[in-house]
Amino acid sequence: MKDEPLQKNSLQSIVDSIQAQEKSTRRVEDTKGYVPNPELKTLRTFQGDMQGHIEEKKETIATIVLAEQKKKIERNEPLYTEKPSSTGASLKILLGVFLFIIGGVVLGGIYFLNSQKTPNTISAVDIERTLIPYTQKKDIQIQKADVGEIAPPLLQEKGLLSAPVNTVLYTKFVLESKQLETLAFVTALAPSASDALRRNINTYMAGIYSYDTAEPFVILEPDDFGIVYSGMLEWESGMGKDLSPFFPKLENYLQTNPSVFTDETYKNKDVRVIRDQDGAALLLYGFIDKKTLVITSNEKIFEAILTKYLNSQLRR
């Protein structure tokens, strides 16, 4: 082997150094008048054990070192242990930093692309708080607070709506760059209702609900349940006529039939209903609770609004 001469030279230098130290120690001990310090006590250490071993076996430190080095040479083991290189660790750190930078660039690109997209529907975190959650929103500009300004665009949105079941289109009526006030909306919706009823509505929501069919709906939030409840019963005589612009089938029916309401129950909620001669619902209203009144033309949509309202209350 090419490294063998080098190893033997290194070994010989170690032996020469040890032998030189041993000769120097003997010269000191042979010096006349040398007396070891009587106050120093011999400690039982590795050095003492080694000295005992040497005296027992008649060996010297040099012969022990030579024997150990010989064994390493025979087993082809290195005489000296090299320190591990830090190159591999440095490469791992650099690779980690590189991957971290690439990941940040990719995530930033994804965020930028998503921010440029215009969603087809409005997520729950983007929508304003309304009486029930909605899926889509439409601002409708009107010139005045009148049923002739409110009903036609609402029915137009009904005809244009093509959405999955359980979709809610929230129609927000805007007058002079502001949402139409509650009293103005209720007055346009119920011109023959009592003034007490109209003034005891805190807020409203109107729109189109897509279920088995798409129909308009109105949700009112009463201030005083007793006043609004009695006011709705009084309004029944003119309710059909007032609301017929929002429900074309009701308008056709009332041309030859009176506006007669009957009591029904949907999901344990009392509802007042107008039905045609075939039993189809044309108009109904009912209180979900003492602060929520729903008006629509379809019992299944009423039940769907009830379910959506109750689920939204649980999440709040």
How many domains, as an integer? 2
**Tally of helical runs:** 10
What share of residues are in beta strands? 15-25%
* Structural class based on helices, strands and sheet pairing: alpha+beta
Q: Biggest β-sheet: count, sense, barrel?
A: 9 strands, mixed
Shape: rod-shaped
Tell me the number of strands. 9
Quickly describe the structure:
The protein has 316 residues and is an alpha+beta fold.
Features:
316 residues; alpha+beta; 2 domains; 9-stranded mixed sheet; 10 helices; rod-shaped
What would you say this structure looks like, in words?
With about 325 residues, this protein is an alpha+beta fold. It has 2 domains: about 5-75, no CATH class; about 135-315, no CATH class. About 50% of the residues lie in helices and about 20% in strands. The chain has 10 helices and 9 strands. Strands 1, 2, 3, 4, 5, 6, 7, 8 and 9 form a 9-stranded mixed β-sheet that branches. A hairpin with a 2-residue loop joins strand 8 and strand 9 (about 290-295). Helix 1 runs antiparallel to helix 3. The protein is rod-shaped. The two termini are about 85 Å apart.
